[in-house]
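Quick one, tokens below:
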């Protein structure tokens, strides 16, 4: 199983002073030191807690202001392209990553990095769509797909290049109950290491390890049952 290592990582940003003074430096996350080695890891936390920032560190979408993030020894800052070949990322809203007019074109675009010729790329794209039950939707307009189908297409596009790790930022938040179950089941059956940010506590309970993020800190890290209990208490009575 791959290893994602965060060593004394902190993320900060400049915040303009509305009164016109000097910009302030705001801490968004950290310092965080973690080794993520389990096959299924969930990250939970309130909106604005820093959990999405943590997820985006894992494939270099966000770079640390200090400290290092490594994926099997590859530094996300120095080796960004190599890291992104190994770590796929799935957004909350599939429209944030679907850019081509039809599903087959969108998956084929993600396959360009494999340097396949056009017929081989088309065949591989159609095979990826078939894997997720979208074979008969290959050439329809992407905007005609349902929300659940668009999320499956986003997943197919990410997994077509066979990354070692998949990071998902609230992949079921915009889905109804039926499609949430479909996506959760697909994610559970993947061979890849999966790190998922979620508000779905039932999904978090099915992970091997759960991180609870609050006000930019990882305030709990461990057993899913204990983590969910801790998080429920945190949201009810406030930070311990």
């Amino acid at each position: 199983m791959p290893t994602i290592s965060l060593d004394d990582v902190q993320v900060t940003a400049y915040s303009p002073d509305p009164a016109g003074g000097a910009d302030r430096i705001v801490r968004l996350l950290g310092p965080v030191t973690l080794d993520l080695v389990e096959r299924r890891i969930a990250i939970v936390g309130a909106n604005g807690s820093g959990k999405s920032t943590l997820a985006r560190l894992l494939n270099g979408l966000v770079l640390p202001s200090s400290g290092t993030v490594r994926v099997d020894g590859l530094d996300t800052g120095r080796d960004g392209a190599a890291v992104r070949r190994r770590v796929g990322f799935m957004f909350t809203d599939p429209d944030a990553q679907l850019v081509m007019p039809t599903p087959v074109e969108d998956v084929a675009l993600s396959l360009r990095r494999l340097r396949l010729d056009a017929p081989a790329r088309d065949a591989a794209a159609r095979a990826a769509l078939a894997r997720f039950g979208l074979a008969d939707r290959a050439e329809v307009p992407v905007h005609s797909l349902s929300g659940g189908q668009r999320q499956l297409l986003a997943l197919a596009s990410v997994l077509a290049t066979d990354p070692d790790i998949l990071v998902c930022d609230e992949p079921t938040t915009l889905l109804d109950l039926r499609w949430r179950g479909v996506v959760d089941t697909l994610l559970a059956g993947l061979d890849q290491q999966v790190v998922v940010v979620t508000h779905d506590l039932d999904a978090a309970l099915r992970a091997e390890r759960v991180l609870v993020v609050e006000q930019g800190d990882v305030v709990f890290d461990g057993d899913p049952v204990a983590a969910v209990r801790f998080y429920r208490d945190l949201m009810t009575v406030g930070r311990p």
